[in-house]
Amino acid sequence: MAKLLVTGGAGFIGANFVHYWRDRHPDDAITVLDALTYAGNRANLAGANSVDFVHGDIKDTALVESLLATRGIDTIVHFAAESHVDRSIHGPAAFIDTNILGTMSLLTAARATWLAGDGKPHRFHHVSTDEVYGSLGPNDPAFSETTPYAPNSPYSASKAASDHLVRAWHHTYGLEVTTSNCSNNYGPYQFPEKLIPLFLINALHGRNLPIYGDGMQIRDWLHVEDHCRGIEAVLLRGRVGETYCIGGGAELPNITVIDTLCAAVDAAFAADPALATRFPDAPAARGLATASLKTTVADRPGHDRRYAIDETKARAELGYAPARTFEQGFAATLGWYLANEAWWRGVLDGSYRDWVDMNYTAR
Ligand code: NAD
Ligand code: TYD
C-alpha cells in the first residue's frame, strides 16, 4: 500500500490522476495539496472517495514536511504549477515563484523528511512538459529524453528550471526521483483557457474562435487518461533518476484540431435537437456551421511552431502506449463538456472574464 501526496490535485491533470489512481489502487492513501489558484477547483475531486484534501501552498516547506512525516507519505506526484503559456507572457513572476521556488520547496521538504529518516524507498515524481525542448522544424525528429533543453516561453523556462532542480536533488542528495515530459493534454476538467475547452465553450456561445497566426502550429495531443496511465507506468516500473517522454501519437496542426471540433459540434447539434434549446446562441442551433466562428488573431509572441514526442523509451521500458486516437479522445471530451455544463459554468467567474478581456482584446 502506497501513501501518495498529489500536489496540484485540484487542477486539470492532477484531478484526473486522483480519479484514475483511486479507481485502480483502492487501498492506497491519497492526500491532495492544492493552493486553489484560479485553476484549482475542489469540484474536480467530487466523487473521488477517501481523498484527503489539504488547502495549502507547495512553497510552505514546513507544511509539506509535516504532511510527509505525520502521514507516512512515501510518494509525491508533483503536478502543482502555473501552466498556461499566454498567462506567463503577461505575468512571468508567478511562474518563477510557483514552478521554480515551489518545486525547490517540495524537494527541500522531501529531502529533509525522507533522507533523514529510516531510509525506506520513496519516490518524487515530477510532471513536466515537452515545451522544455523548444520548437521543432517540420522535418526535425520528435523530442526524446536526450533532446537538449531550449525553452522559449517564461512558462517553459520555469518548467525547465524545475526539471533541472529535480535532477540535481537526485544526483547531489540521492533523492529517488523520476520525471515525465508529456505533450498537450486534453479531456475532462480542463480549464477553458486552453485551446480545446476554450473553443468548445466559445462555439456553444456563438463567440469567435481566435486562431493565433496561421493556425499551422503543431501539437501532439494526449488524452489526459493516457497521460495518467503513463505516469502510473513510471511510478510502478520507471527507473529512479530517469526521465520518460509521454506523447499521444497525435501530431496535428491547430487548424485540423479546430476543424475537427467545429464538425463535431455541428454533428452533435444535428443528432440532438435539445442542444439548440440549451445553447441558442450557437451557430449550430440555427443550422449554421460552427466553422463560421473561426477568426484569425495576432500570433502569440515567440509561439513555438511544432512539438512532437518520440515515446520509444516509455514503450520499451514501461510498456506505455496511448490507448485512444485523437478522434476517440476528442469525441469523449466533447461528450463530457456537453454533459457537465454546470462544471464549466462554475469556473467561468469574474476573474476568468477579466483574463479573456486582457488576452484577446489586444489581439
Ligand atoms: P492546471 O493549471 O490545470 O492546475 C494546476 C494546479 O496547481 C491547480 O489546481 C492550482 O490550484 C495548483 N497550484 C498552483 N500553484 C500552487 C501552489 N503554489 N501550491 C499548491 N498548488 C498550486 O495545470 P494542469 O494542466 O493540470 O498541469 C499539471 C502539470 O502538468 C503542470 O506541472 C504542467 O506544467 C504539466 N503539464 C501540463 C500540460 C497540459 O497540457 N495541461 C502538458 C504538459 C505538462
Ligand atoms: P494551449 O492550449 O494554450 O497550449 P500550449 O500553448 O501549451 O501548446 O494552445 C495550444 C495551441 O493552440 C497553441 O499553438 C496556441 C493555440 N491557441 C490558439 O490558436 N488560440 C487560442 O485562443 C489558444 C488559447 C491557443
Tell me what the structure shows.
The protein has a domain at 3-186 and 224-248 and 307-323: 3-Layer(aba) Sandwich (Rossmann fold), CATH 3.40.50. 44% of the residues lie in helices and 15% in strands. It has helices at 12-24, 61-70, 85-90, 93-115, 154-173, 195-205, 224-237, 254-271, 274-278, 312-318, 326-339, 341-347, 350-361, and strands at 3-7, 29-34, 51-55, 75-78, 123-129, 177-182, 185-186, 209-212, 218-220, 222-223, 243-246, 251-253, 294-297. Helix 5 (154-173) links the parallel strand 5 (123-129) and strand 6 (177-182). The protein is globular and about 65 Å long. Bound molecules: nicotinamide-adenine-dinucleotide (NAD) and thymidine-5'-diphosphate. Nicotinamide-adenine-dinucleotide binds next to helix 1, strand 2, helix 4 and strand 5.
